[in-house]
């Protein structure tokens, strides 16, 4: 099972093994990792699962859809070049070990 | 021999004991009564929601699908077309985009509560939630104000299923046909005189020059009306049932209305109105020792996943302080409810205004009559005391 490293805004790290196909957002909300909300239940419609993907992993991610790109303009914390919505990233073997940084706020 | 019969009035009234058995003993269960598989554990439901290539919505998402509907609504279209269609209206229904709904919602709620002033007892469904949700949808969709009661009655009827014949009965199909006709007229009229409302935005949308098919517009509009009226009112009724079933929760909300969103989230988890939706298996899949074949239908029991102890400890307890995340009250994945922000805002305003007007609201002891439906669960009537 791929491992995901969630790093909170204040630097605390939580490592989780996610079943293949689970999204990074679901991994956080189902395991009580704070910092990701997922208000729209994963339909790319709210930008409350905003995260910053560690640069080392950025190139391995699936390309962002136009919709995700537009939603990222609505984030509560600043949008950066490595901003993504974590409901749009599924845990896969290729992303094993991915590091996800949480923003300061989601709403 | 354990059975799970989503047509039975007992399941309409209280599905939770059966869900507990399903989760514990038959996590991938073939229901002879439904002639479908049933997935009941949170993890398995999430897995199915994420894997739309294996668990397709294109053959319909209602347990008893309405004729001609599958493939022509957002909820019954798979990606990538689904994602393009959905993107057309998504921007208009985000939390930020809906800020304009706050003031109209407040005034509509106040109007209907004013009419109840001085009453000792009233039916929350007929005398508040129905009227309030219809008025909100009229505002959002700019519906012609005539015939609104009938629109609501048809919306409520079309989601039901006859528990005896286990099919949509003539009255349910007639309601659906009526709603299609209503939507067809609305679409025609709106094409001629487009406005700023949600329906106009959807009807006039084009994706990369690819216009929506008339049937898609028609059935999507039908579904949006159904969801905006029936599902929203149904959930709001469950929310008030929870608040009145737990007087300590009501007191906490009266003392601190900032807690109302927490009550909404916990209600979405505890007993959401959207109990079950279905998918169709596209490739052979083995789960918990059972093999599901291509063409088999699968019920995803959201209401059961929401009581899964693996994710929600003490899941059968309504806990205002739980702040549940990852619940399935709006489904999940690409097809998660389009109207989450509308529903949350509408419910928040309704509870705020209701508890301001009736801070001692309580439930009248009664045997609740539940809607006969294989998908949705809400009482047909909820008598409350002022």
From TrEMBL, chain A:
SUPFAM superfamilies in the cross-refs: 2Fe-2S ferredoxin-like
Keyword Magnesium on entry: no
GO cellular component: cytosol
The keyword Metal-binding appears for this protein: yes
Cofactor or coenzyme needed: [2Fe-2S] cluster
Domain 2Fe-2S ferredoxin-type: residue ranges: 2-106
Keywords linked to the UniProt accession: 2Fe-2S, Iron, Iron-sulfur, Metal-binding
InterPro entries the UniProt entry points to: 2Fe-2S_ferredoxin-like_sf, 2Fe-2S_ferredoxin-type, Adrenodoxin-like, Adrenodoxin_Fe-S_BS, Beta-grasp_dom_sf
Similarity comment: family membership: Belongs to the adrenodoxin/putidaredoxin family.
Protein name per Swiss-Prot or TrEMBL: Ferredoxin, 2Fe-2S
Organism name: Amphritea atlantica
UniProtKB/TrEMBL annotation, chain B:
PROSITE patterns xref list: CYTOCHROME_P450
Membrane-crossing segments per the record: none
Keywords: Heme, Iron, Metal-binding, Monooxygenase, Oxidoreductase
Name used for this protein in its record: Cytochrome P450
Organism annotation: Amphritea atlantica
Similarity comment text for this entry: Belongs to the cytochrome P450 family.
GO MF terms, alphabetically ordered: heme binding; iron ion binding; monooxygenase activity; oxidoreductase activity, acting on paired donors, with incorporation or reduction of molecular oxygen
Superkingdom of this protein's organism: Bacteria
Entry-linked Pfam families: p450 (PF00067)
């Amino acid at each position: 099972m791929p491992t995901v490293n969630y790093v909170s805004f204040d630097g605390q790290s939580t490592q989780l093994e996610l079943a293949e196909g689970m999204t990074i957002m679901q991994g956080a909300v189902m395991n009580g990792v704070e910092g990701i909300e997922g208000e729209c239940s994963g339909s790319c419609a709210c930008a409350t699962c905003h995260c910053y993907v560690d640069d080392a992993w950025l190139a391995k991610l699936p390309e962002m859809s136009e919709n995700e790109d537009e939603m990222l303009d609505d984030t509560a914390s600043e949008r950066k070049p490595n901003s993504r919505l974590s409901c749009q990233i599924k845990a896969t073997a290729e992303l094993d070990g991915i590091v996800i940084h949480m923003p300061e706020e989601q709403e | 021999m354990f059975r799970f019969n989503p047509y039975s009035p007992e399941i309409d009234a209280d599905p939770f004991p059966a869900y507990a058995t399903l989760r514990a003993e038959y996590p991938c269960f073939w229901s002879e009564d439904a002639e479908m598989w049933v997935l009941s554990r949170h993890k398995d439901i999430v897995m199915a929601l994420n894997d739309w290539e294996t668990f397709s919505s294109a053959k319909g998402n209602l347990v008893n699908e309405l004729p001609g509907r599958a493939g022509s609504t957002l909820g019954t279209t798979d990606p990538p077309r689904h994602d393009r269609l959905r993107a057309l209206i998504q921007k208009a229904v985000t939390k930020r985009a809906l800020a304009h709904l706050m003031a109209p919602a407040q005034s509509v709620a106040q109007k209907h509560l004013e009419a109840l002033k001085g009453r000792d007892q009233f039916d929350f469904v007929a005398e508040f939630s129905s009227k309030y949700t219809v008025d909100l949808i009229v505002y959002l969709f700019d519906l012609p104000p005539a015939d609104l009661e009938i629109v609501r009655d048809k919306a409520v009827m079309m989601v039901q299923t006859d528990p005896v014949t286990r099919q949509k009965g003539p009255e349910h199909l007639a309601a659906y046909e009526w709603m299609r006709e209503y939507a067809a007229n609305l679409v025609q009229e709106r094409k001629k005189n487009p406005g700023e409302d949600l329906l106009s935005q959807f009807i006039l949308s084009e994706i990369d020059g690819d216009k929506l098919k008339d049937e898609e517009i028609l059935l999507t509009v039908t579904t949006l009306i159904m969801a905006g009226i029936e599902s929203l009112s149904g959930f709001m009724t469950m929310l008030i049932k929870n608040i009145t079933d737990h007087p300590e929760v009501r007191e906490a909300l009266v003392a601190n209305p900032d807690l109302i969103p927490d009550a909404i989230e916990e209600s979405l988890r505890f007993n959401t109105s959207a109990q079950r939706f279905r998918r169709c298996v596209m490739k052979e899949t083995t789960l918990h020792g059972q093999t599901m074949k291509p063409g088999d239908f699968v019920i995803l029991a959201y209401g059961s996943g929401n009581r899964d102890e693996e994710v929600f400890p003490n899941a059968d307890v309504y806990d205002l302080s739980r702040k549940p995340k990852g619940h399935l009250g709006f489904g999940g994945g690409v097809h998660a409810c389009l109207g989450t922000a509308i529903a949350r805002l509408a419910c928040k305003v309704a509870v705020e205004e209701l508890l301001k007007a009736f801070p001692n609201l309580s439930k009248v002891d009664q045997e609740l009559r539940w809607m006969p439906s294989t998908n949705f669960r809400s009482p047909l009537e909820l008598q409350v005391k002022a």
